[in-house]
Amino acid sequence: MAAYEFTVTVRTQYLPEQSDPSRTNYVFTYSITIKNTGTVGAQLISRHWVITDANNHVDEVRGLGVVGHQPLLQPGEQFEYTSGTQLATPQGSMTGEYFCVAEDGHQFETRIPEFVLSLPRTLH
After folding, report:
1. Model confidence over 11-32: pLDDT tens digits?
2. CB 38, CB 6: distance < 8 Å
3. What's the sign of the alpha-carbon dihedral 4, 99, 14, 116?
4. 86 pairs with which residues across the strands?
5. In this structure, what are the phi and psi dihedrals at residue 21, rounded to the nearest 5 degrees?
6. pLDDT, tens digit (0-9, with 9 covering 90-100), for 71-89
7. Is the C-alpha dihedral spanning 60, 105, 34, 72 positive or negative?
């Protein structure tokens, strides 16, 4: 087990009530669980997202914390949050990283695995 390690899992959902396909506006939420799977307490300081739609249009988002928090996680602890994004296409993907600082001052990045944003398949 690595001393400095966060594990990230993601669940996504399409929000038809907030979307307007006639205006090429598709709204998705993503729920993220960040777990400290390392052996040293560490704090999530900032985030960097790369959001790509089906037309290969890329938006990059950088900022402090997540949803107004900079959680300090001891080994085994986890933090969950839900946020959202809008795409101009019915499919896209997101990936990125969290910048973290351990209690001993060590700095590290946690990769956010790429995940797909897509309208649910419908049967006719």
Report:
1. 999 999 999 999 999 999 999 9
2. yes
3. negative
4. 27
5. -55, -30
6. 999 999 999 999 999 999 9
7. negative
Structure tokens at 22: 């006639």
User: In DSSP terms, which residues pair with 37 in a beta bridge?
Assistant: none
In whole angstroms, how far apart are CA 110 and each of 66, 85, 88? 14, 21, 28
Unique residue bearing structure tokens 């993503």: 30
> What pLDDT does 111 receive?
96
Q: What is the total residue count of the chain?
A: 124
- The residues, any chain, with a CB within 8 Å of residue 55's CB and separated by 6 or more, are 88, 89
CB atoms within 10 A of CB 100: 25
